[in-house]
Amino acid sequence: MKRKTTESLKIYSLIVLSIFLVVSCKNRNEKSIKNEWLIGKWIVTNSDFLPFEHISFCENLNINSIFEFSEDGILKVYNSNKEKKNCNDAQSYHVEDNKIVILEYDMLFEYEIISKSQKELILRVKHFPSSMYNNNIKFSEKDFNNVRKNGFKIYLSKVN
Known about the structure:
With 160 residues, the protein is an alpha+beta fold. It has helices at 2-34, 141-150, and strands at 40-47, 52-54, 58-61, 66-69, 75-78, 92-96, 99-104, 107-116, 120-125, 152-158. The longest helix is centred in the N-terminal third of the chain and has 33 residues, at 2-34.
């Protein structure tokens, strides 16, 4: 009797595990197909605020900075299109509704997707840039308050 119960339990466990794996693989494939438009290198063509930063280590991004989104959900950011080494640390990303959600260790932050196509991308950043406090760069009180309240846009074009 115990032998039949043990065999039944093994079969039941294998069935549950198989269903779980099939559903997990299906969801992963649907997500990667859904977000295929984002995968690749994107170059910054303009921004409402320059220089801007990407949390945590990319503090001086400008026109020609690169955002590279890989198929496996890794984001690399480069100060310019001539850089060989990325300026950000280990970051993963996923697309959720109209946002790109980025995870760095235990911190989440996001870019709002304002507009997207196969070749153009406009993001809104709500992160307040630390360069706003730099004494060497002068900003009007209006600009300061506008960035604090509304964030700023980054305009990107697909490189590949």
